[in-house]
Design goal:
298 residues; alpha/beta; Rossmann fold; DNA polymerase, domain 1; seven-stranded mixed sheet; 40% helix; globular
Length: 298
């Protein structure tokens, strides 16, 4: 198994100030790049690492300071309480799909390879992308592609999928790609397919629901002055993170005290998201849409 290219590595790890030592969380182990860098810089303390994909266990560093949790980061508070690790000094989450997951055909995340339409981050879960495509009512499919894929042609696409699945089940990545190929804009085919697969992946793994749970719990486990750094890759995630960091809620509703001061448990460190440099994007094209936001617990 091969992993590489942790995104915004220097910027995200530096934001946590791990050199001071303490208790830190890498909520998305993935390829392990961020974890390794935190351990390299951290003089003492503890690092609790989350990942729901059991395949990553083979890549875990051997380090007595590391505790691995093979589960979704939406259970952050429960596991930190179990390991007597509250409060924590910093939290890092890279919300992207790892290179291994994209490039491994059996995962079903990529339109480039023939593979079963799976898309489960956690194989212990039952719902697959194939079930969604073949069993969800048209109205539900439309909701997924419109809301999670932000696709303007969602209605037409659902109609095509419905006609095709009545003839024969759509069970592989290439079957789905070929069915909807006529709708792909010329010159932007890859972006179109990426949006379709993104929508399915979000639904399969309840990614936005998990992110909300994780963010709410983060303010309960972070010590005052502790920091949280989140790397997102599409507007749905970034919007949630931005609003939450600024207002402490997902609606973006600013609440003020009697003196007109904004009431929020967090203080954004960077008003605008930090993005990869041209050099990083040249070395790792998958980093091009990444946005890093950092906030401090008040």
């Amino acid at each position: 198994m091969s992993y590489h290219h942790p995104v915004l590595l220097e910027e995200s790890v530096a934001a946590l100030e791990v050199e001071k030592g303490g208790i830190f969380v890498d909520a998305t182990f993935g390829g392990g790049g961020h974890t390794s860098e935190i351990l390299r810089r951290m003089p003492s303390g503890r690092l609790i690492v989350f990942d729901q994909d059991s395949d990553v266990i083979a890549n875990l560093p051997k380090d007595e300071r590391l505790i691995f949790v093979n589960d979704n980061f939406r259970y952050l508070k429960n596991f930190l309480r179990f390991y007597e690790s509250i409060p924590v000094d910093g939290i890092l989450a890279d919300l992207g799909v790892s290179s291994y997951q994209i490039d491994e055909p059996t995962k079903g995340f990529s339109t480039r390879w023939e593979g079963f339409l799976d898309m489960r981050m956690d194989k212990r879960k039952k719902l697959t992308a194939a079930q969604i495509i073949n069993e969800y009512p048209e109205l539900e499919l439309h909701r997924i592609f419109k809301n999670y894929g932000e696709l303007s042609q969602a209605r037409r696409m659902v109609s095509i999928i419905d006609k095709q699945r009545k003839l024969t089940p759509i069970e592989t990545t290439l079957q789905l790609r070929d069915a909807i190929k006529p709708l792909a804009p010329k010159g932007a085919e890859n972006k179109f397919f990426a949006q379709v697969f993104q929508a399915l992946r979000i639904e399969v793994n309840d990614e936005l629901g998990a992110l909300k749970d994780f963010l709410m719990q983060s303010i309960e486990v972070l010590r005052p002055g502790g920091r949280i750094a989140i790397i997102s890759y599409h507007s749905l995630e970034d919007r949630l993170v931005k609003k939450f960091f600024k207002t402490g809620n997902f609606e973006g509703e600013v609440q003020q005290d009697l003196f007109g001061n904004v009431k929020s448990p967090l203080r954004p460190i960077n008003k605008k998201p930090i993005e990869p440099s041209a050099m990083e994007i040249a070395n790792n094209p998958r980093a091009r849409s990444a946005k890093l936001r950092i906030a401090e617990r008040l």
